[in-house]
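Here is one chain, start to finish.
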Amino acid sequence: MAASKSLKSSDRQSIIKKLTTELKKRYKGGLPKTNLSVIETLIYATLLEDSTHEDAEAAFQRLFDHFFDLNEIRVSSVDEIKQVLGDLRDADWKAFRLREALQDIFEKHFAFDMEGLKRKTLDAAQKELGAIPHQTDFAQSYTLQTCCTSHVVPVDESMLLALRWLALTDAESTGQQAADEVKSATKKSDAPQFCYLLKYLSIDEKLSPAFVQDIEDTVTGHDASKRLAGLIKNGPPKPPKAKPAKKAAETKAAPAKKGTTKKSSKTASQKRWSRKSQLQSLRRRSRLLRRRQPRNQRPVRLARLLRRSPLQRRLLARAPRSRFDC
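Its structure:
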């Protein structure tokens, strides 16, 4: 989608406004109001990545109902945390990230307190969150946007696919690059609302299958609002059926069957003639030997002679008996 490169910041801003209006019709409700600490927001952001807000909130509640405090989560195994998270997407990877983050914070501060992050500048806060191991750009940006009210845009993998389908970013862009493009086209007050609606769009079970399909090169970001309205109304396009290919394969295979039938019939006739000739040669040979040998030795020598292969014995058994047989 090279057409997204030609979008100006003002054009992208007007497109995002139209998309926000269209998304509000389908996904009603405002931003969730939470009074979480910085560490709790980081945990929630880790659970929210590529998941719905409802699933993340349920997993977050189970986490704090099952464990006594954050220190118990820190000393627990990854399998224990994974079982508590349940059917959450990438539960094992998220459980590992949670434990490693709590371990790193405890070793640095000897307490689970990061409220000082709210008083730091954006660069200093990003540097401190970036020092926590195994944290993604989405978790860091969501924590900064929620706790520090910074002008950042959290974009996970599912949201990136939706932005590519809307032609608001290039097909080769990373999540951070797409986040910077959306950030430059949205106001600080409008960014959380658009990210909230984009999150619901990216994980919509009815619409998200369209985001993994190939997009034509002629698609531009100016058609994003119309394409989204058509997607909501008609749903994702169905993949094409492969029936003509099967019919062509059957027609090609039909002549081959006739040829094989003829060939097999010829082979059977040849086998019958060969058996008949073998039977005649055995009979002639037995007659000659019977004439050359004395009468008292004919049955014994003939029995020795007829110790042939199984095929020859079957042929002799099928042949009608004559006066020369013993």
